[in-house]
Amino acid sequence: MKLFFYYFKIFIFILFFVFFCKTAVFAEEEYSTSFDIVYTVNEIGNSHVQQTIKLKNNLDNIYIQEYSIVIGSNQIKNITASDNFGSLDPKVDVQNNSTSIDLTFGEKLVGKDKQREVLLSFDTVDFATVKGQILEVGFPLFANKENLSEYNVRFSVPASFGEITQMNPQADSFSQSNGYYHYGFSKGTLLNNTSISATFGTEQIYDFSLRYTIENTLDSKGKTEIALPADTNYQKVLYSQIEPAPQNVYVDEDGNWLAEYLLSAKSFLQVTAKGQAKIYLQPLDKFQTELSSGQIQNLIKADQYWQVNDPEVVKLAQELKTPKNIYDYLVKNFIYDYGRLQTNTERFGAVKALQNPESAICMEFTDAFIALSRAAGIPAREHNGYAYTQNSTLRPLSFSQDVLHAWPEYYDSQKKQWLQVDPTWGNTTGGLNFFDKFDLDHFTFITHGNESTYPITVGSYRTDFTKGKDIEVAFGQTFDPVKKTQLELQFLESGIVGLPVNGTLKLKNIGNSAIYDEKLSIVFIKNKETILTEEKTIDILPPFANWEIPINYNTDLFEQSGIYQLQIQFMDQKVEKSFNLKSYLGFLGKKKTERVVSQWTGNEQAYVLQLGDKNSFNFFDLMNKKDEVINILFIILGFLIAILMNRILLKKFAKKTINEEKIDLLLQKNGKTDKIENSHSL
Fold first, then answer.
1. How far, in Å, CA of 410 to CA of 353, rounded?
2. Which CATH entry fits the domain spanning 300-450: 3.40.525.10, 3.40.50.360, 3.10.620.30, 3.90.1150.210?
3. What is the CATH architecture of 6-200?
4. In this predicted model, what pLDDT tens digit does every residue of 246-281 receive, in sequence order?
C-alpha cells in the first residue's frame, strides 16, 4: 500500500490592510478549522472521498479568501467543490506524485463567528487495493491535525469482503448498513498516527503453475517422487492439471502429497502442476487432531538442523518455555541480514543461528524456533512455500531463487491444532503481530516435521538443462472443488469352497480436490440375502491418487456353493461382480474344460483327474494359469488325503488282501480353460 499525505493552506484577507500577501502566516486563534472526511470504497477498490471543511472567523476584521490542499497521489479525478454560496471552480495541478487543489472564494464572509462550510469531493484509485479476495485500505491523515478544532474520519467498505483482518489504529465506532461496514475515528484516536490502514477478508485465492524437472541418472529404471502443495489446516488445494499424470499420489506422515513417477534409465522428465489454492485466516476445524504419544515424540526429536539436545538450546528453551516467549525472543534478538540474499546462502541450523543472531534470514528464524520449541517439549514443524509481499524489505523472501519463504508452526494441545507463526516478518515489519493472528499471504508448498530436509520443495527440482522460473503464482477469482472417483473391480469369476476368493479394487480420484472421511462399503450377497458387510473409512484420497485395495472373501468347508454377488460403493460410484462358489467336485465337474473320472475295480480304486480332452501338457500355459494350478493342487491334496484314509480303513476292515493303489494324475492342456486374473496390491 502506498503512503499518501495531506497538506493544506488557508489564505486569510485582513480588512483595512493596504496590501495582501499570500505567504503571510497567521496565528490559529484568528480562525478555527474542522474537518469531517468520509471515504467510501467500492467492490473494485475505487475510493470516493468527501470532505466537509468548516472555516470559522475568530475576529471581526478578517475573512478567508482561499483554501488549498495537496494530496500525495496523482490519480485524482472527478473533483467537485462548493460552499455556502454555491459551486466553486477548483484549480488542479498534478505533479509527479501529488495533486494540488486550490479553491478561491468569491463571496466575502466577514465577521466574528461567521463560518464558511466547504464541500470537496473527488475519486481516486490509490487509497484501496483489491488483492484477489482481499481488500486493503490506507487513508492519509493531516500532518498538523493537532491545530484543528475538530477532526473526524469515517470510511465504509463493502461487507462482501468479509470481516476485518487487521486495523491500525482501532476504530472508535462501527456500524453496518446497506451492505457496507462503517468505521469512525475521532481526533483523539488519530493524533499519533499518520494514516489509517485496514485489511478485510478471511480467504484468499491463488492460481499457481509449478514446474518440476526430475532426472534418473541410473542405468536402470527408477522410481522417484515430487512433493505437490497439499491441503493443510490453513489451505485447500485444487489441481486442474498434472502433466504427465503420476502413477500414484500418497500422503506422508506430515501430510505432504507425494506424486510417484517411474523413469527410464538415464532420462529426465518435466512435470507441470497447475491449480488453485484457497488460504484461510483461521485454521479449519476439520483438521483438529490429537497427537498420539508416538507422534509427539517424533515431533520433538532432534534432526540435522534442529539440534534439540544442544546444551545452549536446552538452556534457552528452559528459560523461554512457551511458543510466545520463543517467538518474542527471536523477533527482538535476531537481525535480518539482507546481504545474505545476494549470495547462495548456507543454511545455518538452530545452533549456528543462535550463535550469529545478527546474520539471520528466514531459515534461521524458523530453525531456531523449531529447535527451541522441541527442546521445551512442544511439537513444531517447518513450512516452505510462497509468501505474497509488495515490500521485500518489510517482508523479505529468502529461501531460494524462486522467491520462496520459510516459517514455523507449533502444536497447541488445548486447541488440538497446528498454529502457524512467522517470526521473520514479525522482526522485519517492526513488530506487526504474526503470532496471535496469521495472514492470508502464506501459501505452503511442503511441511517438514519428520525430517528437516525432506521432501524438497518445488524450485529445487532442477537439472543443468533447467532454465527460467519454476513457480508462477497470481491472485485468483474462482475456486470450484470437484469430487469425482472411479472404481474398477478385478475379481475371480469362480472359487472353491474352503479356499479364499481374491480380487483387487482400483480406487482413483479423478476430481480436482482431495476426498476426506468417506466410507467404502463392501457387501457380499447370496440369494438376495446379505451375508457379509464391511465398511472401511478412507481418511484421505488426494487428487490423482490411484490406490489398489485387496478384496478377500475367505470361505470354509461348510460354505454353501452357488452364485454370489459382490457390491462395492464409494461416494456415488458403485460396482458389482458375480462369482460362482463351487464345491471340490462341483468345481471339477461343472467347468466346461474339466472332468473327473472315477473307476472302481473291486477293492481297487483308480482316480483320474483330466483337464481337457487331449493328453498334451504345456508347462508355460499352465504357469499362465497359476491361480487354477494352485486350486487344483489343493484338490489333489484333498483327494490324496481321502485315499489315504480310505486305505487305512480298508486294511483294517477288509477280509481279503488289497492290492496297492495306483494313482494316475494326467494334466492335459485345453485352450478353452477360463482365465483367472492375477491380483496385485500396493
1. 19
2. 3.10.620.30
3. Sandwich (2.60)
4. 999 999 999 999 999 999 999 999 999 999 999 999
Task: Kindly give the pairing relationship between strand 573-582 and strand 494-496.
Answer: parallel
Q: Are the C-beta atoms of 403 and 346 separated by less than 8 Å?
A: no
Is 595 a residue whose pLDDT tops 70? no
Amino acid at 449: G
d(CA 571, CA 548): 17
Which CATH code for domain 485-582? 2.60.40.10
Residue range(s) of every CATH 2.60.40.10 domain in the chain: 485-582
Lowest-confidence segment of 190-199, 390-399, 622-631 by average pLDDT? 622-631
**Parallel, antiparallel or unpaired: strands 173-177 and 180-185:** antiparallel
Query: 212: closest CA among 455, 523, 535?
Result: 455
- 493 vs 43, 197, 488, 496, 554, CA distance in Å? 62, 70, 15, 11, 15
Q: Are 122 and 78 within 8 A, CB to CB?
A: yes
Whether the pLDDT of residue 169 is over 70: the answer is yes
pLDDT band at 604 (very low <50, low <70, confident <90, very high): very low
What mean pLDDT do residues 158-163 have?
92
Q: What is the DSSP string of 38-99?
A: EEEE-TTS-EEEEEEEEEEE-STTEEEEEEEEEES-S-EEEEEEEETTEEE--EEEE-SS-E
